[in-house]
């Protein structure tokens, strides 16, 4: 299929090549790897109040700042590390968000111990299979759902920070718990087919 006739989601700014690559290769693909899930949780919590594209541009900065998203290493970060990261221009220099990432790493590990993996825990909120949405226009996209509200509530109860229902829904979209590609987007069926063949 040529680039000219590829139809993509209505929210995507196709003038930004890196955004297009993220949409075409990552967004909405079911994800089960805990390191990647920790990365996505970290980036989503950093995004609160900002545009996703702002965070996407700083993704490599976050990778360097947070030990390649090695959750065990991040959980060991100290107050000195938080102060050091406050000087790091490669990330959003928000003290509460930086401290939240360290806190969330510790909580993430607790979930891994309880459920065997964070993936096992996370996917239970959609009965272990992606929800396929019916979306045609930008206006059709929800900001929160019952599943994201339940997921966020449980995360909060477990001590996670900066992960409210809206942020959690964005996380669910990103890692394929919901397939929120629009009905006419070329990726929607590709992802459904790839997942159903497993």
Automatic annotation (TrEMBL):
Q: Where is the signal peptide?
A: none
Task: Spell out the molecular function terms from Gene Ontology.
Answer: DNA-3-methyladenine glycosylase activity
Which major enzyme category is it?
Answer: hydrolase
Q: Where are the transmembrane segments?
A: none
Q: Determine if ATP-binding is one of this entry's keywords.
A: no
Keyword annotations of the record: Glycosidase, Hydrolase
Q: What is its EC number?
A: 3.2.2.20
Q: What is this protein called?
A: DNA-3-methyladenine glycosylase I
Lineage of the species this protein comes from: Bacteria, Pseudomonadati, Pseudomonadota, Gammaproteobacteria, Alteromonadales
């Amino acid at each position: 299929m040529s680039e000219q006739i590829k139809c993509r989601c209505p929210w995507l700014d196709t003038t930004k090549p890196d955004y297009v690559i993220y949409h075409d290769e990552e967004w909405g693909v079911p994800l089960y790897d805990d390191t990647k899930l920790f990365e996505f949780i970290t980036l989503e919590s950093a995004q609160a109040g900002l545009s996703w594209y702002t965070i996407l541009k700083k993704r490599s900065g976050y990778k360097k700042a947070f030990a390649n998203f090695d959750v065990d290493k991040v959980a060991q970060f100290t107050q000195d590390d938080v102060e050091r990261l406050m000087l790091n221009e490669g990330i959003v220099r928000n003290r509460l968000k930086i401290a939240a990432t360290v806190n969330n790493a510790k909580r993430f590990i607790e979930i891994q111990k309880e459920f065997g993996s964070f993936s096992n825990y996370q996917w239970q909120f959609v009965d272990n299979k992606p929800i396929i949405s019916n979306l045609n226009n930008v206006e059709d996209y929800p900001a929160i759902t019952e599943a994201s509200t339940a997921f966020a509530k449980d995360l909060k109860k477990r001590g996670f920070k900066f992960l409210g229902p809206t942020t959690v829904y964005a996380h669910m979209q990103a890692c394929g718990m919901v397939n929120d590609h629009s009905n006419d987007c070329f990726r929607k069926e590709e992802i459904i087919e790839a997942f159903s063949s497993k």
